[in-house]
Design goal:
The protein has 570 residues and is α+β, with helices and mostly antiparallel strands. It is built from 22 helices and 8 strands. It is 54% helix and 8% strand. The longest helix has 27 residues.
């Protein structure tokens, strides 16, 4: 149940004409009254004798009893209450009860016998509109301070009472939603998203991993946006606004939005906080430049593991900084990944955007590793879908799933319901992206592991039982076990102690909550042993007797056969 308080107005009759009219796109069906302040208000929708003017006059009567010079300039209060997608269709009687509860909770008509006059209009299955005149029967103004917060609280109780979808309560840190006018404008132009939403995504990605103001502004322009800076007399930049070139107002001028109107953390002062140096940053050795997408993804994997340790053991400000910087990594990864993973990665970044903000202020500077990882991903360039680029994409996504889940758990402990839900949604999109990214390399490893001599398969199974006795049975029964066996064989042939490395890999993070422990161990081992992420680049005896080309063809065939299983299991 989603309440929304609209901007106050000054013309009751005009709003009623809209509510009872056909709508901007003929979407209003059977407009009618479901409730009113005295249950006796005329209904122009169902009563042929009633008119909109009758209802407007009735609602405004307390206003007209005041002297002209004491009447409020804006007196029309307007709110809507919408059922969540998937909720059952409520009856008129149920909506009437909901209307009275919301009106009472907001203070418009607190039930003291002298409240404001109001009416509830229904013109669709899934929502109602509430309209009230902000003058009480006793001539005073209503106490409706924080009416939006009050309505939210009441709607959480309504959801429980009516067994409806439980909407996570907000905390005032969410990005501003597009207005109905913005949505309708986008629909008229055949666009799936409003300019506000497109701008927010482009600005967010431009800020990801940026090292300073000039680079940030350059990225905005490179992203196709019109950019204006607000300059102080001193020459310093005070803020910025952005617009889409094709988004024009009635006068043909671009519609500009400030960063703070897009999201609370996209104002220039908040973005500047990202460039803050943390303790120990002054003497930090410069990081060698990345050599391409694969090396950038390996670095991002390492930075994500460091962030997991901070989320487990750091203070709140440090954790908030790591979570915020994780959003930058997701944005950069989505921007630089291949087409077959890009959509899910974009969806993950968009979902995690909500998880990156809370009332816990991020202690910027402690997130250097993740922000540098985001920068590396951008400067490493676009990744190819296969080879080392594709395999390291699977490696970093596997780690980012853990990071998103850790963020969700931290938010849940802090009772940040919306942020926790958003992080979980991001994790689901990351799992889908992982299924696409890991498809080919895991199929090749599966083939190699299946072709290992039985004696070596038993040898590697024994190593798993020694290193992970409590989890061994589950790991050995997973479809991904042959891929893990192939990786353990590579670990052996490169001179590592497989049992010791398995123990180290498992100790880095719990495994029992992973959906596929064998996959997780594959990527941890390949990173710890410095093995190529793409098995095709590996050295060893696994490829004897077959050419690289035929091996690739067999792996591709196996990948096609096992794709559905991979998606189900991951």
């Amino acid at each position: 149940m989603i309440p929304r308080i609209h901007q106050q107005g000054r013309n009751t009759a005009r709003l009623l004409a809209y509510l009872y009219g056909p709508g901007r796109r003929e979407e209003h069906a059977d407009p009618h009254l479901v409730a009113s302040f005295d249950s006796l208000a005329p209904d122009p929708g169902r009563d042929p004798e009633a008119t909109l003017r009758d209802l407007a006059q009735l609602l405004d009567e307390p206003l007209h009893l005041l002297p002209d010079d004491t009447r409020p300039a804006t007196h029309v209060w307007h709110a809507s209450v919408r059922a969540a997608p998937g909720d059952r269709v409520l009856t008129d009687d149920e909506w009437a009860d909901i209307a009275r509860r919301v009106i009472t909770a907001t203070g418009i008509d607190p039930g003291d016998g002298a409240g404001c006059r109001w009416a509830a209009v229904r013109h669709a299955d899934d929502h109602i509109h509430l309209i009230a005149t902000l003058v009480r029967e006793d001539g005073r103004r209503p106490d409706h301070h924080r009416s939006a917060k009050r309505a939210q609280t009441e709607c959480r109780q309504i959801e429980a009472d009516y067994d409806l979808h439980r909407v996570a309560p907000g905390d005032g840190t969410a990005a501003k939603r597009p207005t109905s006018a913005e949505r309708h404008k986008a629909e008229r132009r055949g666009r799936q998203r409003t300019p506000r939403e497109e701008l927010r995504e482009t600005v967010r990605r431009s800020a990801a991993g940026s090292a300073g103001e000039e680079e940030f502004v350059d990225r905005l322009a490179a992203g196709g946006l019109l950019v204006r800076r607000r300059i102080a007399p001193s020459g310093d930049t005070l803020g910025y606004t952005v617009a889409l070139p094709g988004d024009r107002n009635g006068n043909g001028e671009p519609v500009f939005y400030s960063g703070s109107k897009l999201a609370p953390d996209l104002s220039l002062p908040r973005i500047r906080e990202r460039w803050t140096q943390g303790p120990g940053d002054t003497g930090r050795q410069p990081t060698p430049p990345v050599t391409g997408p694969a090396s950038a993804r390996r670095r991002a994997t390492g930075a994500a593991w460091q962030a997991l340790l901070v989320i487990d053991h750091g203070d709140d400000g440090m954790v908030a900084a790591q979570i915020a910087a994780t959003g930058e990594v997701l944005d950069a990864l989505a921007k630089s990944s291949a087409a077959h993973t890009r959509d899910e990665l974009r969806a993950a970044a968009t979902a995690f955007e909500r998880a990156s903000r809370s009332h816990v202020r991020a202690a910027r500077g402690h997130d250097h590793a993740l922000r540098q990882a985001a920068r590396d991903l951008v400067h490493g360039g676009p990744a190819l879908g296969r080879g080392e680029d594709g395999a390291t994409t699977a490696m970093v996504i596997d780690t980012l799933v853990f990071l998103a889940v850790a963020a969700a758990h931290w938010h849940a402990r802090k009772q940040h319901a919306q942020q926790a839900e958003a992080a979980h949604r991001a994790a689901e999109h990351l799992r889908a992206a992982y299924a696409s990214a890991s498809h080919y390399p895991m199929a090749l490893l599966h083939q190699r592991g299946s072709r290992l001599a039985p004696s070596w398969q038993r040898h590697h199974a024994t190593a798993v039982r020694h290193a992970l006795p409590e989890l061994a049975d589950r790991i050995l029964s997973e479809p991904g076990w042959p891929a893990l066996a192939a990786t353990l064989d590579e670990v052996r042939t490169t001179g590592h102690d497989a049992t010791a490395l398995l123990t180290q890999a498992a100790a880095r993070r719990e495994l029992d909550t992973a959906e596929r422990m064998s996959d997780v161990l594959v990527w941890r081992l390949r990173r710890l042993a410095d093995l190529p992420a793409d098995p095709q680049n590996s050295r060893g005896t696994h490829g004897r007797g077959s050419s690289a080309a035929s091996s690739q063809r067999r792996a591709a065939h196996l990948a096609a056969r096992t794709s559905n299983d991979t998606r189900r299991q991951r």
